[in-house]
Amino acid sequence: MSILQTVLVFVGIPLGVTALLALAVYGRTTTHRDRYRPGRSWDHPAVWYVPHPSALAELPARPALPAGSAEQEPPRLGGASGEW
Amino acid sequence: MVSGEVVSHTEEEIEALEAARDVGPSDLAAMPGAFNPRQLARIDEALTLASRETGLLFSVYVGGFGRPDGSRAFAEKLINRLDIPATGGVLVAVSPGERELHIVTSPAAQRRLPNRVCALAALGMRAAFSGGDLTGGIVTGLRMLADAAGSVSR
């Protein structure tokens, strides 16, 4: 083998393999930098989504009961909260 | 919004948010920001399915809450801005920066979604969020709430 061939085989091939591996490992993450990671800052604009109106429009109009005086529901909001 | 930054939402900001409130899958795909089109499609599907199945108006907010002490109040302010049908409404509000989430149910929805059910859904969402899966957490929460609320009689 000439010197050029030796260099190509023992330097070129390992370098090529290393480059391929590096690309496979880091290639995608650089394009997905937006991925959320807990603890990192969140500097995207706030978004608020509601379902498409057709999702609720299909509901049949139910006959309304005459207003009763017995049960007055307090207009209080419920739910739950959490942190992570 | 930087994590921990103290931000207060003014009425104008809430109104701007309300104006930007997004409807439908076609609009969702065009929205810039945190989610890619595939994730938006998942959220939209979960949102629409949950609303269609239960007859409750489900809504998802992702963004800052403002003052740390007023985050719950902000979420409640948001749900009051929604045009909630007689069957009731549910708001799922997530702040990835503050690592906080709120599920708010309207009075009419509370019979079908008691607070302990919401707490369970919040737990499921927290598990996904702490693993970095924002979309998965939102979808999980919506599904859990929809399953618990049951389908509306047609």
Helix content range of the residues of chain A, please?
40-55%
The value of Rg of chain B in angstroms is: 15 Å
β-strand number of chain B? 4
Number of β-strand runs of chain A? 2
The tally of helices of chain A reads: 2
Largest sheet of chain A: none
Q: Identify the strand order in the major beta sheet of chain B.
A: 2-3-4
What string gives the helices and strands of chain B in order? HEHHEHEEHH
- Oligomeric assembly: heterodimer
Give the mean pLDDT of chain A. 80
Q: Which overall shape of chain A is indicated by the principal axes computed on the Cα atoms?
A: rod-shaped
SSE order of chain A, as H and E?
HEHE
Number of helices of chain B: 6
Terminal-residue CA separation of chain B: 43 Å
Structural class of chain B: alpha+beta
> What does the average pLDDT of chain B come to?
81
User: Which structural class is indicated by helix and strand composition of chain A?
Assistant: alpha+beta
